[in-house]
Every structure is written in C-alpha cells, then in structure tokens.
C-alpha cells in the first residue's frame, strides 16, 4: 500500500499532457500523420477528439510519405474529414490502387491536389475533377493510354480554372495542358523512354487528336526537366514552339534541365531573343548548348533573381561576373546557385585554361560578396584547385556565407594546398618489406572519439574551419570530380571508373571527422574519397550528427577492399533518425554483422546497395527485414547470380508485402544485361531520390512545388 501511495503521489506531481493549452497541444499534434490523428488519436478522449479535427490540422493532408496508409484508411479519412481538406498531397503513393482516387471526390473544397506517382486513368481523372470546382493547383502523371477526348465538359471547366500544373509524362502527349487556359505555373517532367518494352523505337510525335495549342498567355513560371533520351527532347520542343511565337509578358522564371546535348534550333533561338527583349527574369536555367559560345547572358535582363543554374556550361568566371553578377552588383536576392560541372566558372577565361589549373580567388570573392544571402550552392563535378595564396583558399572564402543550408563541393577543393603538394598519396594496403616480427593484416583500428582524431591532423585545416563556420548546414555533398556511378540512367552498368584527381589523394578520415561539427546535418553524401584508411570520421558523424536522415557513401578508400566497414557498423549504431541509406562500393559484403548493425537504425525506411562483385547473405537480409519494421524499400544490385537474387526478392515480398503495402524490393545482378528493364519498373519517387546517384544541391529552385 505504501508503494502504491508513493506512485500515485508521483503521478499527481507529474505533468499531465491534457493540462497543456490548446495551442501547445495543436503544435504537438501537427507532427502526427493525419491518418493517425483522425483514425486513432481522436478516439482516445473528448478533448483530443475536438482538437484532432481543428482546421489547422485538417486543412492540409500530407500522405506522400505515409507508407503505412492503405486504401481503407484513405476511404475512412475522406469520409470523416473530406469536406475540411483544402490541400491534399498523395504524391508517390504508387502502392494505392487506382480506385482509391474515387474517394477524393468527397473533398469538395480542394484547392491544391498532388497525384504525381499515383495510378490515374483518363476516365477516373475526368470523374474526379468534375466535382472539384474550387481546384487551382494540380499535379498528375500522363501514362500510355491517356486520352484527352475522354475528359468531360465539367472536367475541362475545372481545368480551365487551374493556375498551377505539374505534369509528369511517360508518353508523348500534351496531357491536360491545352485545357488549362489560366496557367501561371507549368512544371513538366519528361520521363519518356526511347524504346518500348518490346524493343521498338518510339516517336516524339504526339498522338492523333492532340494538336490543341497550349495557352501560355498568363504564364509566370515555366519549368521542364528531361530524363535522358531523344524522344524527351522532341516532345519538349513541341511545348516550346508556342512560347517562341508569343512570349508571355509576365514570365519571370524560365528553367529547362536537360542532360547531355540538347541542340538549339531556330524556334528556341527566337524564343530566347524574344525573352531578351520583353521580360525580366527572376530564375534561369538553360541547356548548356544554348549558353555556350553565345552572347545570350549579355542581353537577358534580370529583376530580383533568386535562382541561377549554369550546370555543365563552359561559362568562364569572367563572363559570370560581367554578365550575370554585372561586375559585382548587389545580388542579395539570390538564394540558390548551381554551378555543377561548370569547370571554368572560377577562372577569368576558358580559352587556354586546363580544367585542373588553379582558380582565380578574386572571382569567387566577388561571388561571395555579391551573393551574400546564398542558401544553396553547388560547385561539384569540377576541379576547383586553390592556389598557395594565404587567405584565398576556396574553403576560407565560402566560410563567409553564413546563411548556407546546402553545399556541394568536389573532393579536390577541400584539401589544404601544402598537404596536397608535400604529402604523397597513402597506400594503406602495403605490407612493410622487412624481416623480423610479422605484421598482422586484419580490421584496422581507429580513434573512437573526436579528440583522438583532432590530435592526428586537422583542427587547423581550412576544411575544418569551414565546417565550424557553417553550423546550420543541413545538406552536404563532397563528391570526387571524376566520380561516376556504376548505375547511370537508361544505360548498362559502368564497369570501370576514372581515377580520382591528384589533389584529392590526401582527403580522407580527418576531413570526414571535420563534418561532425555540423550539429544540424540531415543529409550527407561522400563519394570518391581516396585516402579513407579506416573510416574513423564516420563514427564521429554518427555520434555528433543526431539529425542525420539521409546517408550516401560511394567508392571510399581503396577499391579492392571495404576498409571502412568496421567504422560504418559502429556509426550505424548511433543513427537513430536515419531514414535513407545508399552504399556504392565494389566488393561490399552485406553479411550478418552489417545487417545486425543496420538494425539499430530504427527509423530506416529505404536501403540501396550497389556493389560490383559484392555479396549478400540471404538469411541476414531476411532477419534485417523482420527486425526493421519501417523498411519499405530494399534495392540491392550486387555480384550474386540471378537465381540467388530472384529467390531472395520473392522471399521478402512473400513474407512482408501484406504488412507493408508500400514495400518495393529489387534485388538484381549489377552487370546483368536486363538491368535497365528492371530499373524502369522502380517507382519514380525511389528512383529519383535514392537509387540513382546524382548531386541534388540546388538541382531545382527552392519551393518549386510543395
């Protein structure tokens, strides 16, 4: 009785959640998925029943990464609060059957609707949009079989009022664009393959009956992102043809992201000339062939630019300063800048310059001073070598950008000049050729804490200082300038990789340890760091960066052996918030010890391993899937046989698909000739966000869509 009385006394002195004010409770509840709020939490007590239906919680419903939601939950959710929903995001809900869309008709007051990645037929789309008279923003996919003639007059009336449209095309089509006569924002994603599954070449010509002309007169934002392929280029030209005839007067953002070569034509030249005469832009991105060798930038006019991308252009630093920054004028409005693959952007001229020559620090200094409010900066895929001048190192200049939230740098840009010149590349795998006591070869030891690591090398290094100055950085990418993934888009796997830059040879464990200063780091990418000996810096990151959600590691250290495996396993034990893990490393052994360490990542949702000649342990994978209940994506492209891969994939699907409706499993030999056919069936959300390697910093303007 005394024990019971003491416990009751402690409870009475404790804090009761229901005693908080409604404002605090609403703030807490805003972090709970809407399906849980409506279907579970509100049934606990009367107070929560009222709060869970507050307009601040039901106004916007986000289902895009609620991997546990199923058709029945969506149906019940729409029944209970459908009339209260004004914004509904179901992007990437690929696992929901197309009939789920029928329940959206209950949301009569919808203003914004995102169905990208959902299965929607022409008839279902027509029926749904016919009831959504208040809709102003729409995102959909256009798949093979889409027929605009099946859209009813009521549906077209709704589309005529839509001002924002995001359309992902998997077949040559205008989609619903011709019906949207009031468009102000148009986002187009071209994912059309050049060949059908049967191997036939596809045409870029639109289907019969799709000759309607889009209406661009009110357009303010035009964005097009093309996947590799000739057909995508042909179809986007049809969309641009109307713009070349008459450029919208209110156009202030014009962005086209096209990989490879996308030649300029007479129509596109007329469009750019018209833009130079009639509009003032706030955001610009063009294919490299449209900028290289032309005086376009000299004639374009800018208002208060917030985004520039000159990715893969041969733009020199001199042109960048003169034509874009206008000799160092105030560009405080610029928040996002992508210079990825722009190899001469920090040099005064590019005519006689080699890509490996030192940068001109005065150009970078002008950039930093003029664009002092940059939040997203991408300088990857280029050799940015600093000179020996004191105080002019790239890292020292970038440390002035105190507002940076995301940063992408080449590996060779972060090394101390003296270290790269004086210190020869380390070869950790060499055994001393001496007589006497035998040297034991095995798992290497490494310092377990930040202090030991700092004593070895680096608190005085320029990269350490840079990391210390960017305390609020959330995304960091350090990628070798010659790195290329073994899994490129729509092509066979690459068998050989280019060697790292000579300047990058000294970058290793100590530089990785410096990253652990970033307390608020959420996403980290490290690729082609040749001097990783033990991976000790990874442990420091695991201990210090407790907000880390996304981790991508590729080709670290020597290629013949995974030298950082022990440190990686120690790191993973501390990554409680990690949701996405991508590993790309030859000869990676995905065995019992690795998966046991990975099981500590209780929040993990997506795993991708790419490994030439890599091996896996089927029993260990099955045990991992059973222990980590949140995992809904498992992609492994290894060196195992097709039989082993298929058997494991089938076992995972058979054992866990019923409990995890969003489960997506692809296990396949990396060098198999049918790899591209397998990849085309991967949901676009996973393919674009984790499976394919790419730099994502400043890839798009911030807040382009939801």
Report what the structure shows.
The chain is α/β, with parallel strands linked by helices and 706 residues long. It has a domain at 463-690: Leucine-rich repeat, LRR (right-handed beta-alpha superhelix), CATH 3.80.10. Helix content is 30%, strand content 15%. The strands form 2 sheets. The protein has a 20-stranded parallel beta sheet, sandwiched between helices. Strand 4, helix 8 and strand 5 form a beta-alpha-beta unit. The longest helix is centred in the middle third of the chain and has 16 residues, at 230-245. The radius of gyration is 27 Å and the shape is globular. This is FXL18 protein. One of its GO terms (cellular component) is SCF ubiquitin ligase complex. Residues 14-61 form the F-box domain.
